[in-house]
Amino acid sequence: MLLSFRRRPVPLGPIPALYNFGLLVASVVMFAGCLQSTMAEIAETRWLWQRSKTPFEWIICFPMGTRPAGRVFFWSYIFYLSKFYEFTGTFILLFQKQNLSSGHVIRNAMVVIMCFLWLQFAQSLQIFVLLSSTGLYITMYVYLSLCRMGYAPHFENALRYCQIAQYVSLLLASIVLIGLHYYKEGCSGMGAWLFGAFLDLSSLPFILVVNKQKKQRHVFNNTQKGSITSKTE
């Protein structure tokens, strides 16, 4: 609370860059580890469910009675712990005096609860969410790093489009999950999935509103600059 009353940003030096680099490295490790563990799990347990599911269907829909244990759930636990590390980014934004809404904080807290429910109820679809989320982080931070070094062109709203693409892919995967749950043998952790679906639907308008406000603020600032320039002339 005290940080929000400061008028000037606090110089943090290399801390924000180190934070982003740490998140990038963690995302690469989680993506590669989860992908390798998923392939190994499919190869070792396929004989149990190959008559009723394909490997893709197993990734989307865990069989009923699945226990939250094993190599795949290990990476889900690491992903859960990484969400506490991401709270550091909230304090960095406060120190830098960037616009931070209550929705941002609530969203981060709800994601922690969602990841806890993954592990508690062996929720289906979590492999897909983990891979898509870490893949999005890798894309975002590599792109931003290349832009800052001048090796990539800057596309306006590129990160927002990546987020929307992830939401669309999750929506399609959720439709497949519902079909597998009701027309086959059922999927594990559907109650936890409903909570995650509510979280995603509730946060999507927030992302769109925030970007709309940023556009309006950008237009307002440009208008102010233009009026000042015309007055000086």
Automatic annotation (TrEMBL):
Superkingdom, according to UniProt?
Eukaryota
Q: Which residues form the signal peptide?
A: none
**Tagged with keyword Transmembrane helix:** yes
Q: What's the Enzyme Commission number for this chain?
A: 2.3.1.199
Q: Known Pfam families for this protein?
A: ELO (PF01151)
Q: Where are the transmembrane segments?
A: 21-39, 72-93, 127-144, 164-183, 189-210
Reaction(s) the record says it catalyses:
a very-long-chain acyl-CoA + malonyl-CoA + H(+) = a very-long-chain 3-oxoacyl-CoA + CO2 + CoA
Q: Where in the cell is it found?
A: Membrane
Q: Which UniProt keywords apply?
A: Fatty acid biosynthesis, Fatty acid metabolism, Lipid biosynthesis, Lipid metabolism, Membrane, Transferase, Transmembrane, Transmembrane helix
GO terms, biological process: fatty acid elongation, monounsaturated fatty acid; fatty acid elongation, polyunsaturated fatty acid; fatty acid elongation, saturated fatty acid; sphingolipid biosynthetic process; very long-chain fatty acid biosynthetic process
How is it placed in the membrane, per its record?
Multi-pass membrane protein
Q: Name one GO molecular function term.
A: fatty acid elongase activity
Q: What class of enzyme is it?
A: transferase
Q: Name one GO cellular component term.
A: endoplasmic reticulum membrane
Q: What PANTHER family is this protein classified in?
A: ELONGATION OF FATTY ACIDS PROTEIN 1-RELATED (PTHR11157:SF134), FATTY ACID ACYL TRANSFERASE-RELATED (PTHR11157)
Family stated for the protein in its record: Belongs to the ELO family.
Protein name (record):
very-long-chain 3-oxoacyl-CoA synthase
Q: Which organism is it from?
A: Ceratopteris richardii
